[in-house]
Structure formats: C-alpha cells, structure tokens
Write a structure and sequence with these properties.
It contains 13 helices and 13 strands. With about 475 residues, the protein is of the alpha+beta class. The protein has three domains: about 60 residues, no CATH class; about 120 residues, no CATH class; about 160 residues, no CATH class. The longest helix is centred in the middle third of the chain and has 104 residues. About 20% of the residues are buried.
Length: about 475
C-alpha cells in the first residue's frame, strides 16, 4: 500500500487545524499537532518550494490514511461548527411498465434541496444503540443522521438497520476530492447538494405508497392510450387496405377494359390483314388470269401467223443437209491437221504422254452419226479417246466411261453439233409449242435425227466391240 506523507490537517487539542492556519512561528515541531489517524506527532513543513503540509515527525513511519482521516474529521467539525448541512433533493418516484414494456414513472417532489441548510443542533459521533453516525443534526425538531464518506460508504446491512428504525440519513460523498484540499475548498465540496444523497427517509416510503395508486392510474391511461392508438392504427390499416382493394379492383377493371380493347383492335387488325391478303391473292389471281389470257391470245395470234408450208420446206431442207454431211464425212480421210485450236495443242502431247505411235484402227471405223460434229470423224473420236477413255486413271481403275463426261470434254474443246441439227431442234420446239405439224412426215423425220450422246454411245460401243488384236 502506498503511503501519502503529505497531510493537510493535523489534530491539536481535539480540533482539526489546516497547515495554512498556522503562523510562521508554529512551523516544524512547534505546531504541537498529531496525526488524525495514528496520533503520532506531526511536523509542519512550511518551506518556500513545496506546498505547505504536515508530515510525520522524524523516526515515525507515515501511516496509510492520515490525509483521508483528516479530511473526514475536518468535514464533521465544519458541519458542527457551522450548524449547517447540505440537503439533497428529496423526491419520491415509483415506476412500472405499460403493456408494451416501456417504463411509466410517477414522481412527487418533497423538498427541492439546498446547498446550505441551517440546523438547530449538531452532535458528533453520538451513539444510537448499534448505530454510530458521524453526526446527528436537529432540524425543526427532526433528527437527521449525517455520514461523511471519504473512503467508507454506507453498506446494505447498515441501510437496512436505518430503515428498520425509521431514521433519516444523508451521506455526503467526498471520496473523489483532492487530498490537499484547503478549508475553503473543503467547504465548497461539503456544501454542495449534488454531493449529498438521501440514504433513508420515511417520507419517501409514505410518498411512494401515495404514488402507487397514481402510478396504476397512469399505467391504465397509458395502456388505454396505447390501445386507442393500436385501434386507430388497425382502423387506418383497414381503411388503407379497403382503399387499396378498391384501387386494385378499379385498376383490374381498367386493365380488363384495356385488354378487351386490345383484343378487339388485334382482331380487327387480323381481319383487316386477312382481307388485304385475300384481296391481294384475288388481285394476283386476276393478274395471272389476265396474263394467261394475254399469253393465250398472243400464242393464238402467233400460231395463226405461222407459215406451216415454210416449216415443212425448212424441215425437208434440214434433212437433206444432214444427209449431205453424212455422205461427205463418211468419205473424208484422216486429216493431217486438226480443226480446232485446243485439239492442235492437246492431242500431240497426249499421244506423246501415252506413248501412242499409231492411231487405233477403231477410230477410223465409220459409225452412225460420226458426222454430227461437222469435223473429220477421226478428229473428235481421237480427242474423246485420249482425254476421257485412254487415260492413266481409266486404265488403272478400270472405271465405266461416262457418256456425259465425253460430251462435256468435247464441248470444252469447242466441238458443237452441226448447224442443221441446231435448226432442227429449234424447228421442233416451235412445232411443239404451237402444237402444229404433229403428224407431218417431215417433222417426224426431224425427230429421228441424232443427238451428240447418240454418236458418243455408238463410238463407245465400237471401242467395246473392238478386240485388242484388231485395235
């Protein structure tokens, strides 16, 4: 425990003296003061540097509570000398809870309190049986116990004894004041009603008993107010709910009307579009019928303008031209030069690539329709043979030789059917389109004229029938 050697009050002739109340001649051991706690001699230190104070005389060990005991005794002495006490606020308060659990309080002001209340008499350390208060003061014939608390406060056991005897007691709290306090400073602390507290007072119990019916009434009023507010909120909620329900019904009705309107508009739009599509389809059918009628009229007009005799003569002329070509090319020898440029470029190289030194005799054999391309028959046969028949791929895979492939190859080289055949096709198409000369002999003869595929098929058949020794 720490010991405070600086003591502000000393005890002399059973009275507390502050070091500031000594004269210069009483300093040191001449102060004739003892420690309020341990009653050891004190010396008054009144130098020029440190604050003036009492200290235990040389050779005496400082005690633990000299300063606190001095302040405690000085406060009691000050009250007894001044015949005045601080009286705290005396107010009875009872508390309960409303239906929501919140506190409800009722208070009664008994005495407002005073910092300095004069008293008629003051007794120090007067015994009252098993109770020994610091002071007992008399105010208007009523005894009030005073307790000065510096280090020790009234405990629960003592408070119960005070209540059991119906006494009045005030506690003055000086526990936190400076230990070097002067008499003037001490007076300011002692006579401050904020530091005084009623420990017990019979008037409090009586006032609380009187307040309890008021508290119950206040709680009832508060609960009634709460219930009224709750009912008002419930009514307001119900009104709001009914309002929202009406609004929702109104909006649903409006939405239903709007939906019905949209449905009707969509139905009208659908019917309008359907009518427009039907009208457009009807217009299209009329246009098609009109166009078909116009075409039919044009076809009939053009059919009436046809020169059927001229068509017969043209058909006979085409047949005769084809016969002349057939006769001419059957007697034509193998040409020394090729007719078309691509044949001039590709055939010699193909012969060299395939190492063919002699033209196969099957190419020189006359077949039906070999006059069809209007060139020496051996020429187009040789081109077809070298480009599509006698190739490394055909020889390696032994594939079937497609007629369309040979026809496309000859077309790529520039070989076209002779013009009479082209004219025959046009004349046949005209007769079929206008439905004329269907049973005419000349037109039937045109239908028998060969096509390129017929000549290619005859050529492939000749190659197939030719044996290795013959070729």
């Amino acid at each position: 425990m720490a010991y405070d050697a600086k003591i502000p009050y000393g005890l002399r002739d059973d009275r507390l003296i502050h070091v500031s109340q000594l004269s210069r001649g009483e300093r040191g051991n001449r102060c004739a003061c003892v420690c309020p706690e341990c009653k050891s001699p004190l010396t008054a230190r009144m130098g020029e540097v440190n604050r003036h104070h009492f200290a235990h005389a040389g050779g005496n060990r400082p005690c633990a509570k000299g300063a606190e005991t001095g302040i405690h005794l000085a406060a009691k002495q000050m009250i007894a000398d001044n015949l005045a006490i601080p009286v705290p606020l005396l107010q009875a308060t009872v508390e309960g809870k409303n239906s929501q659990g919140y506190a409800v309080r009722e208070s009664m002001l008994i005495f407002r309190g005073r910092d300095r209340q004069p008293v008629d008499k003051a007794q120090v350390e007067h015994h009252m049986g098993n109770i020994r208060p610091d002071l007992i003061v008399t105010l208007a014939g009523v005894e009030i116990l005073i307790e000065v608390a510096v280090t020790h406060y009234i405990d629960a056991e003592k408070q119960q004894r005070l209540e059991a005897r119906g006494l009045r007691c005030i506690e003055i709290d000086l526990g936190d004041i400076p230990r070097t306090v002067t008499p003037a400073e001490l007076a300011s602390y002692v006579y401050d009603q904020a530091r005084a507290y009623w420990i017990v007072n019979p008037k409090l119990a009586a006032a609380e008993d009187a307040l309890r019916p008021k508290l119950l009434q206040a709680i009832e009023r508060e609960n009634a107010r709460i219930e009224k507010a709750r009912q008002e909120r419930a009514d307001e909620d119900r009104r709001q709910r009914e309002h929202y329900e009406r609004m929702e019904a109104h909006y649903l009705a409006m939405e239903s009307v709007a939906a019905e309107k949209r449905r009707k508009e969509e139905e009208e739009k659908r019917q309008r579009l359907q009518r427009e599509r039907q009208q457009a389809a009807e217009d299209e059918r009329r246009r098609e019928a009109a166009e078909k009628q116009r075409q039919q009229q044009a076809w009939e007009h053009e059919r009436q303008l046809l020169d059927l005799n001229g068509m017969r003569r043209q058909a006979q002329g085409i047949i005769e031209a084809c016969q002349r070509l057939e006769t001419h090319w059957q007697q034509a020898p193998m040409p020394s030069q090729y007719t078309l440029p691509m044949a001039k470029r590709h055939v010699p190289r193909a012969l060299s690539r395939m190492e063919i030194t002699e033209i196969p005799r099957a190419l020189a054999t006359s077949i039906p329709y070999d006059w069809l391309y209007g060139v020496p028959p051996q020429e187009w046969k040789l081109v077809a043979f070298l480009e599509e028949v006698y190739t490394h791929g055909r020889l390696r895979q032994e594939e079937w030789i497609p007629i369309l492939g040979i026809e496309r190859c000859l077309s790529d080289f520039g070989y076209r059917p002779v013009r009479p055949l082209h004219l025959a096709t046009e004349l046949q198409n005209t007769a079929q389109h206008y439905r004329v000369l269907g049973d005419d002999s000349s037109m039937l003869a045109l239908a028998q004229l060969p096509k390129p595929r017929d000549a290619i098929a005859e050529f492939l058949g000749e190659l197939a029938s030719c044996s290795g020794s013959q070729c």
